[in-house]
Amino acid sequence: MVGVFGIAYAALTFGELKQQTKATEDAAKAGRDSAEAALSQANAIVDAERAWIVESIQFVEDIPYRAVGGGVITARVTIKNIGKQPAFLRLAQLRFHSVEGTLPKTPAYGATQVFPEGFMIAPGDEKYLRAALEEGAFDNETVDRIRGSIVGGLKLYIYGELLYMSMGKRGINQFCYKWNNQMGFSWEGTKPYFEKDGPSGYNNHT
To answer: How confident is the model over 157-197, as pLDDT tens digits?
Structure first.
């Protein structure tokens, strides 16, 4: 009799322990879910209020030949803070060059500017960077290859990366543009321009 009651008591106690353990696990899960929800909400608030740096490319209406103007060909990269708080630019990397075939999956940037203290860009403000063509300038044949006028086409790319801080959060803007020469597809009045392009690893904004 004592043995039977002992076994029954042990079984009852074990059942209560299982219930207590499950209740503790449920409470812990609820706590984790609540913490994750609070963190997600906090991140959403920061994202809504922080700085966001966007870019645009300004370039001449057509690719100049080496004989026209002389010197190194450059493009202007305008960066603008469209967010609600100041951005502190820490690093800017740009590369501007022609490519035979396709770009590699991982970008290899060229010229790098580092701002250890952070270069402030106020909300709504614009700053300007210069991307210098790696080749300096193009001869007539190279320009015609980029335009698609002759066999053996080349592609012309500008790509870069901007790292900045805002409200304690790091922002990264990776971008890539390819020269669209409009050969055979242009409407009257349209002109060649740089358009967003390139592998996924070249375009990212967080």
So the answer is: 999 999 999 999 999 999 999 998 765 444 555 678 899 99
Distances (CA, A) of 115 to 77, 90, 119, 165, 189: 17, 5, 6, 11, 41
Contact between 142 and 154 under an 8 Å Cβ cutoff? The reply is: yes
Q: Residue 145: how many CB atoms within 10 A of its CB?
A: 19
65 contacts 138 by C-beta, under 8 angstroms: yes
Residues 118 and 178: their CA atoms lie apart, in Å, by: 29
Report CA dihedral (34, 36, 42, 45) to the nearest 10 degrees.
Answer: -100
Quote the pTM value: 0.75
**Domain 52-205, classified CATH 2.60.40.3760, yes or no:** no
The phi and psi torsions of 3 (rounded to 5 degrees) equal -65, -45
Give residue limits of the domains in the chain.
Answer: 1-49, 52-205
pLDDT class of 23 with cuts at 50, 70, 90: confident
Do 183 and 148 contact (CB within 8 A), yes or no? Answer: yes
Could you give the angle at the alpha carbon of 75 between the alpha carbons of 64 and 186, nearest 5°? 60
Q: Give buried/exposed letters for 42-65 (b at 16+ CB in 10 A, else e).
A: eeeeeeeebbbbebebebeeebee
CA–CA separation, 197 and 146 (whole Å)? 16
